[in-house]
Amino acid sequence: MKHTQASDGIPLKFYCAWYCPFAQRAWMALLHKGLDFEYIEVDPYRESQWWLEISRGRAMVPVIVSPPDGDAGPTTVIDSTRILEYLEDLVPDCNPLYPDDANTRAELRFWIDHVNERIVPHMYRFLRAEQPGDSRNASRQALLEGLRAFGEALSPSGPFFAGTELTAVDLALAPFAYRIDTLLGHYRAFAVPSSGDGWPRYQRWFRSMCDTAIFKATLSDPDSYRQRLIEHYLPYSQGREQ
Question: Cα separation of 242 and 236, whole Å?
């Protein structure tokens, strides 16, 4: 994979937390784009003045800080969706994540919003619903509906969302799909269906994403990563804060 230097040969600074799916999105994009970057592991829950300044007062990962450009100072980009867009703007010709066509690009952005609004929140609600009942059932059903719509929208030719090439949509969902499989499978005995509607396409997509080099490279310790995630998210599964 070709690697591209940031301005003046200075790498980007990438602030990450190993367990965070939002940060994993950005990490995968950096690798896909072949950009040189400095990985900096942080604990976003420790709201030190240093960390608040770096994260623009948000105390959340991911954060990317670009080197100064001429007279302009460094650029700080927060929010995983914005980072995907920023990296595309930074090196648009290097392994594109968005198509050139405005209409197709708008369609991809719709599905990124779908992931962010119709899948991610319900995953967390389902995980945090410790007690069986209406709340847990509602979050489970909403998650299934969001995933089903995504599966039905997948390219028939696959294996990725828009066909044979990775897009920002694939990177947007992959870290959460892995946690749906790992965390909800462990704590809620949940499994994504394999037949009917768009489920076979989804299952093929999920296997393909897990097999990509950039996904495997963002599992900080492949041999223990799954178990470490399960242990890390135990408080969530009990309805408590992290």
Answer: 6
